[in-house]
Amino acid sequence: VVMAAKADGVTIHHAFDSAGEVKNCLEILKEFKHGGGGKPQLATAKPMSDQTPKEEGVEVKFVLAPADAKEQSAFFEFVMRKWLKEKLEKGEYKPSPSIKVVGNGLEGVNKGLDELKAGVSGVKLVLEI
User: Fold this and answer.
1) Pairing relation of β-strands 59-62 and 98-104?
2) Could you report the per-residue pLDDT of 55-66, keeping only the tens digit for each?
3) Is the pTM of the predicted complex or chain greater than 0.70?
C-alpha cells in the first residue's frame, strides 16, 4: 500500500479500520507522518483497550455510528451525500484504486467484460447507469 501510494504521489493521512487491524493500519500511516497535512489519524471500529497498538505521531480513536435507525440514516446521509461528496469534488479524497468508466448502462457490459478478460490491474472498472 505504501509503495503504491508513494508511486502515485498520494499521501495517506486518514484511515478507517473496520476489521480490528489497528497494527497493520499504523504500519501504513507511520510512513506518512512527516509528509505534511497534519498528524495522521486512524479511526477504528474495534473498541480500544490498553493492548491496542500505538504509534508515536499517529492519533487513534474509536468511532461508532449511531445505533438508532433514524440517527444512523441521518448520519450516513450527511457523510455520503455532503461530507464525502465535497471532499471528492475538492480532490481532498481520491478513490483508490483508480476508476475507469467503461460505458453506460447495459450497452457497456460487454465492453467491460472484454477489458476484464484481457486483464486489469489496479483499476476499478465502472459502468455508469
Assistant:
1) unpaired
2) 998 999 999 888
3) no
